[in-house]
Every structure is written in structure tokens, then in C-alpha cells.
Amino acid sequence: MSKFKTLLKNLGPGLLFASMAIGTSHLVLSTKAGAQYGWIMIIPIILANILKYPFFEFGIRYTNVTGKSLIEGYLNRGKLYLWLYTFITLVTTFTILAALYVVTAGLFINLFNVPGLSVSATALGLFVFISAILIIGRYRFLETSLKFVISILFVALLVTTALVLFKGQITPVEDFSRPELFNEIGILFLISLVGWMPTAVEASSWISLWTLEKQKVTGRKLPLSEALQEFNSGYLMTALLAIFFLIIGWMTLYGSNTELSGNATTFADQVVQLFTTHIGNWAYVFIAVSAFATMFSTCMTAHDAIARVSIDIVSHLSPKKVNFSGRKYFALGVIVLALVNFIVLSAFSANMGTLVALATFISFVLAPVVGYMNLKNVMSTDLPKRFHPKKWLQGLTYLGIVFLSLFAIYYCWLVLS
């Protein structure tokens, strides 16, 4: 019991990671995986979570031991490392965040039946509301509020999954045959699922910065074992929620020959409507809350993290090494991100899919490189040897790098051929 109390007290970076990761990769991709291909898709989901684990764990390990961010570690390895990570951040900053807000705004309109609102006006409201939360409440409020949001989300999803399992799988339509997984369409979907499960590898530095902020807020540094225990609990929750969404998609949609939309907002609305048809209208509130809480918490954590990453990068690239860690710089970063992404959202709404595809391409292709950079950090002299990852974890890291490299090469071949 004392261990559980310690874990609850230490909840922070791992919780934020879970909140950030369970966005479109879970709500859309996991559900769609179960809906289109059935239970077999649990294999790539589990595989992706296992093989990517070291890259995210290193964000906690490096920062907990050294008191530095992974980004500062990249600079210590050489400026090329830092510039490469800056390029990835620059591309994702102006695309992924805008896309997340578009999906969340669309979900709000569809799920809560407010058709009079436009997506851009709703997104603007979300930008203002979330920016205010982050600036006024900062890390402490973000962590506390997410304990409630994630708890509600986990319970709502647990109830929904239990209801779906109790109701049983739908009867497949006549002459139903599972779509081919190993053709071009199936492989591209598989790459998307693995690439975003549990999230993009560059988010490892986000966890690193949350760890630093947690230390600053609490005024203490956790022993490495406790910090890793807290992260592992968040990581396990992320994997479990992916499986919940997979089960929901499999039990309610697989075999129905339903034409699923490629648009994330429309797809989520489709899923909610199909749930209520399968389970009953009374279950709507559980499903609507699950879907919206998933995307809202992702927007909040991603906005916070990207602001922190941007500030950290600028401070390390600054010729005079100016310290931008003050409250006013964080507030400025949050506001600038909101403004820039709202402009991107408004100006490029018709081409949002193309912009996200570009960010996805860069994220997938450079994922093994970021993984290798993280390994270089934790194996460097910045850490005493006793804190270096164990042999099995190093082996898993190399396996993950090979796995992601093969996916990246094949993805490039598909996209560019």
C-alpha cells in the first residue's frame, strides 16, 4: 500500500506522457485497426509499445541523473544533433498542434451537437481557454487537472469496453472478408499505426522537460527507481488504453463493411454513433466524454510540451546562452504557439492533410535517428556508468532502431515511388 501511495504522490511526467499519447493514435488509429482488421492488430500495437519503450525511458533516465534536458544532451553531443532536433520540432510545431486543435474542435461540435459553431471559431476558443490554463496554472495545475481528466477517461473507457464485451461482437455481414493487410493500403495504415504508437519518438524530450519542471515545482529529485516507476505506470496505461480502443473498434465495427472516413473528426463521430446503435443511446455520455477528454488532454499536454521544447531550443541556440526559463517566457511561448497555429489552421485548413502528411513523413523517417541520439545521451560520460541502461535495455534499443529504420525505408519507398 505504501508503494501505491508513493506512486500516486510521484505522478507527473508519466501521467502527462499518457495524456499526450492517447490522442489520434488511440482514438482514431487503434479503433480503426480493430474495426478494419480485427484482433490481429493487437500484435503491432504491443510490438510498437515494447520496441519504442527505451527511447522514452531515456528521457527520464538522462534528466533524472544529470539534471539536464535531453535537448541540452544533444548539444553536448554536437551542434548537428541539436540542429537536427530543431528541424523536426519546427516542422511538427506548425502542423501537429494545429491538426490536434482542428480534430478537438470538430469533436466538440459533433459530440455535443452545436452545429452553429464553425471549426475555426471553436478552435480559437480552445486555444484561448487552454493557453489561459497553461499560463495561469502552469505545471502544477496541469498535473493536478490531468489526474482528474485521465481518471475520468480511464473509467469511461473501461465502462465502454466492458459494455462492448458484454454485448458481444456484431454479426458480420454476409460474404464479409477481412481487408488485405499486406497490400499498399494496409502497409501504409500499419506504418501509421506503428509510427504513432504510443506517440512520435521526438516526444521523448517532452518527458525530459516535464521531469525538470516537476523537480523545480516540488523542490526535490526522485531516486531514479521511483522516477522510472512513475513513468512505467503512465506508459503501461497508454498501452492498455490503446488495447481498449482496439477492442471497442473490433467488437462494434469489424465485419460490418462500414465505410470509415479518413477524416479524424468525422471518423470519431461515426464511432460514437455506431456505439450508441450497438449498446444503446444511454451509453452516449460515456463515449462522448471518452472521445472529447482524449483529444482535449492531448491538446493541453502537447501545447505545454511544445512551448517548453521551443524555449529550451532557443536558449541553447542563443549565442549568449540566455536563460529563458522564467514564467514570462513560458507565457510568451504558449501565446506565440497559439497565434501561429491558429493562423496555420485558418490559412491552410484546406491543405491541413498535406501539412500533417509532411510532418508525419519527417517524424517517421527521422524516428530511428532520434532514438540513436537518445541512446548516445544515456551512454555518454554525462551519466556515471552505474546509471547507464542495462544490457537488455541497450539490446532492445538497437532492435527498436533497426525496426524503425526498416519501417522508415519502406515508408519512403512507398511514398516516393
From TrEMBL:
First and last residue of the signal peptide: none
Q: Does the keyword Transmembrane apply?
A: yes
Q: How does it sit in the membrane?
A: Multi-pass membrane protein
Q: Which Pfam families match?
A: Nramp
Q: Which residues cross the membrane?
A: 40-60, 80-109, 115-136, 148-166, 186-212, 233-253, 282-302, 329-349, 355-375, 396-416
- Would you tell me the Gene Ontology cellular component terms? membrane
Q: What is this protein called?
A: Divalent metal cation transporter
The species this protein was found in: Poritiphilus flavus
